[in-house]
Design a protein that fits this description.
Elements (H helix, E strand, L loop, with lengths): L5 E4 L7 H9 L2 H4 L2 E5 L1 H11 L4 E3 L10 E6 L15 H16 L5 E4 L4 H6 L7 H9 L4 E6 L2 E5 L9 H4 L2 H17 L7 E5 L14 H15 L3 E6 L7 H4 L4 E4 L2 H9 L7 E5 L5 E4 L16 H16 L5
Helix pairs in contact: 1-3, 4-6, 8-9
Bound molecules: nicotinamide-adenine-dinucleotide and 4-hydroxy-L-threonine-5-monophosphate (4TP).
The site of 4-hydroxy-L-threonine-5-monophosphate has 9 residues, from helix 6 and helix 11.
């Protein structure tokens, strides 16, 4: 089987993405799989800042030794670590779209994305809420955001929207779709036969029999009943505060949370070096880091590359399974 060809998108030029790429270059086994979509100048500056060797080569060149990295250049307007300059937004978005184009055209087998500063793209006029949503739109398909570590997978019904809008967004149709996509991915991408999924409630204590909210009775329970009748093993709706107890996690393959900050803090609380962000439902694998742009430490050589390197490994393994992900 040939090696996976991964499009790796640098992300925010002012953040830690460039130094993560510079670390990647020190690992020729991984770098051989990757082509970076991002600014050559920024990656060179990051390598200098953190004191590692870098030899940028053409996009079609082979990787023969440590330090080499294939880069397709998306020049930036300004380069300063710790600052997300909206004038670079066009380059950030062009790199992302070009990586996606490469996957859609079959030139790449999967995409790995570095962290993007949502606020900077907004300031530049882009209607960007997240790469998950960009991928859904570009691939014209429904997707699910799942963050995964070795011992925990958390999928989200809603992703990047104000908390105020969450209850109305959690509709029976969206919940059913999320559960179907998550269940299918657990079977195909994660090779789990007959997976069991824990589904959280929306309200404190999962609504406490309607005393603390009605979404559990009116929206969540009926969808679970429908899908259980088809044979899906679903537990819930469970109160979110206790659903992550080790005893419950031990018997479940994934947790489906209703909104971003209901599920992700649990996953990120043990550090930002163990998990990755996987978009389920796409025609090709997409894996991202579990952390953000970390402007506060960019260019200082203290950022952990672990989630980034793990994202490359997970993406490569998803490609190698050769199992349809959509
Ligand atoms: N994959 C993505 O594109 C992605 C993911 C999360 C957040 N974001 C975006 O990133 C921006 C900043 O978000 P934030 O401040 O909430 O989260 P963040 O993850 O950037 O930073 C949170 C804290 O974790 C630290 N940190 C992050 N990554 C680290 C690493 N690899 N090694 C060591 N320490 C690390 C930071 O220094 C900071 O103290 C926002 O615009 C957010 O939307 C993007
Ligand atoms: N929700 C993600 C997280 O917290 O890790 C992050 O914002 C990135 O999402 P996208 O991959 O959709 O940009």
């Amino acid at each position: 089987m040939s090696s996976p060809r991964l499009a790796v998108v640098l992300g925010e030029p002012g953040g830690i993405g460039a130094e993560l790429c510079a670390y990647l270059a020190q690992d020729p086994e991984r770098a051989r799989l990757c082509t970076i979509f991002g600014s050559t100048e920024v990656i060179q500056a990051a390598a200098r800042a953190i004191g590692v060797a870098l030899d940028i080569v053409e996009a079609d060149a082979g990787i023969e030794r440590a330090g080499q990295l294939r880069v397709i250049d998306f020049p930036v307007v300004s380069q300063r670590f710790g600052v997300a300059d909206p004038r670079n937004a066009d380059a950030v978005m062009a790199a992302l779209h070009s990586g996606i184009d490469g996957c859609l055209a079959g030139a790449f087998d999967g995409i790995v994305t570095g962290p993007i500063q949502k606020s900077s793209l907004h300031a530049a006029g882009y209607n960007y809420t997240g790469t998950t949503e960009v991928l859904a739109s570009r691939c014209d398909t429904d997707v699910v955001m799942m963050l995964a570590r070795d011992d925990l997978r958390v999928a989200l019904v809603t992703t990047h929207l104000p908390l105020r809008n969450v209850p109305d967004a959690v509709t029976p149709a969206l919940l059913e779709r999320t559960l179907r996509i998550t269940h299918a991915a657990l079977e195909t991408q994660f090779a789990l036969a007959d997976p069991q999924i824990v589904v959280l409630g929306l309200n404190p204590h999962a609504g406490e029999d309607g005393v603390l909210g009605h979404e559990e009775h009116e929206v969540i329970a009926p969808v679970l009943a429908l899908l259980r009748a088809e044979g899906m093993r679903l537990v819930g709706p469970l109160p979110a505060d206790t659903a992550f107890l080790p005893s419950i996690r031990a018997t479940s393959d994934a947790v489906v949370a209703m909104y971003h900050d209901q599920g992700l803090p649990v996953l990120k609380s043990e550090g930002l070096d163990r998990a990755v962000n996987i978009t389920l439902g796409l025609p090709f694998p997409r894996v991202a880091v579990d952390h953000g742009t970390a402007l506060d430490i960019a260019g200082q050589g203290v950022a952990s590359p672990d989630s980034f390197l793990r994202a490359i490994d997970v993406c490569a393994s998803l490609v190698q399974q050769r199992i349809p992900t959509g």
